[in-house]
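seq as requested:
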Amino acid sequence: MAHRKHWRELLREGFLILSGSLIYAIGIDCFELPNGLAAGGLTGLATIVEALAREMGIAAPVGAQTIIMNGALLLYVYLTTKDRGYVAQSIVGILASGFFVDALAPVLPVPAQGELLLSAIWGGVLVGVGIGVVFLSGGNTGGTDIVGQLLARRTGLPVGLLCVLADGAIVLLSIPVFSLRNALYAGIAMYVSGVVIDMVLDGPRTARIVYVISQKHEEIADKVLYDLGRGCTELQARGVWSGNSRPVLMCVLGRSETMRLKGIVAQMDPDAIVIVSEAHEAFGEGFMQIDPS
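struct tokens:
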């Protein structure tokens, strides 16, 4: 049984890597590359090099460039850390994404040629979906993440900050090759792809945490329990200014239920304090179940 599960996991990971790499390549070939949007990453750097090489009559396919660049980075990672697992997880995504970018470029249409805003948005969406799907497999497509990790070991700076700086530097490098206008739209594409990656990995964030401070907390709690059908937790708090103890109701609700709770509180105690914040994830009864894997 364990053997069958092992092969199912391998097939699932392979499917995620290939499908994610395909979506990623569509975003690059249909929107970003033809419009000169070097939206960060090694693909953005390869886009700059490809444009410069084309002016000199030299063919420098973007996908092949990314495979070579990432290969050199992975070799350095392996020689310095001996982290075989990370290298093995990265190789498939890097090869698949690079291959699809070059293989699909001659056959895919360019639906928004010259429309930089449309290209930035849809390129960012497709690239973000593709990278997010590859991340779900446990692999990656290489790029500035590897650069950030290497620099972090030497500088001690956060990996996220270094990745942003590296991506920003690539966007700046694209200005003399394409234009400042293209670089600004490349920044939009980079931002959109980052947001979409988070959405793919975390799912839609529909849960809200609501804190209610009211003298009529018992009545409000009853409404939450019986009208909304949601659980409600009473926390003990103390006002620093008054020194008085007061209960605080904490509820985790869906987006539409939050509006209903606001209506209940407004009707029962207009002077109540209501604080609404976004929950990153919510598991359990009434929400998603925790995946044991």
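Residues 2-202 form one domain.
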